[in-house]
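Table S2 (text version). Query chain:
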Amino acid sequence: MFDRGIEIKTPGQIESMRAAGLVVGQTLELLRGSAVAGVTTGDLDGIARDHIRSCGATSNFLGYHGFRGVICTSVNDEVVHGIPGKRVLRDGDVISIDCGAIIDGWHGDAATSVAIGQVPDDVTELMRVTEQALWRGIAAAALGGRVSDISHAVETTVDAAGDYGIVEGYTGHGIGSAMHQPPNVANYGRPGRGPKLVKGLVLAVEPMVSLGTAQTRTLSDDWTVVTTDGSRAAHYEHTFTLTDTGTWVLTALDGGESMLAELGVPYGGPSGA
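Corresponding structure-token output:
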């Protein structure tokens, strides 16, 4: 069902999205353990490809506007949309891995950043702040609220942590029977604006934060987005929905239950998720 262009899902459809989300979450967990010095980004793509297929799912990245991988692999100053290939990961790198999957026509989408060996302290802190901003954004969502409540929480979390660049021009999004749907979920803005948060709305929240500028450019491959000053970036993402009982993070293996508890937010998924 669509409400003013925004897709509202039934409980059964959200269950299918949870199934897709679990494939995504499991794939990212596998890749976190596989991303080590000496491995290529293409190796990681192969691991993801095999796992998604073994789960009976398909990739929503592969072939998307001609994209060649099942994951995006963005290293160091690459913010998003890095194409997996021959690049060898080295000690001190940070890689952001974005992954999606489809089950029964319903999509899941999530991302994580991984340190390769020992990284500088400021990079470790960048990753911590970006992930915290993701969860603070999700925690700010409540039935009857507005989409920009999420945006404002992301922005204030990053701003309070230090002098970071919140990447401009790229946002989170609605998700469901397509990977990218309205509404956009910006990573900055005033609260209380945008579409209302209602049951059946599913959103992907994805802060992208750099150690320097908020400005980016796209490389000649027409995909890879990098910071204009060469500063390192981090990217985290989860897909979530709101139920009568609280928040359910469809791409987190535990449904987000543990992190939501830390933030004092009611968990809205099934028990034992």
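Notes on Table S2: The chain has five helices and 16 strands. The CA atoms of residues 33 and 222 lie 29 Å apart.
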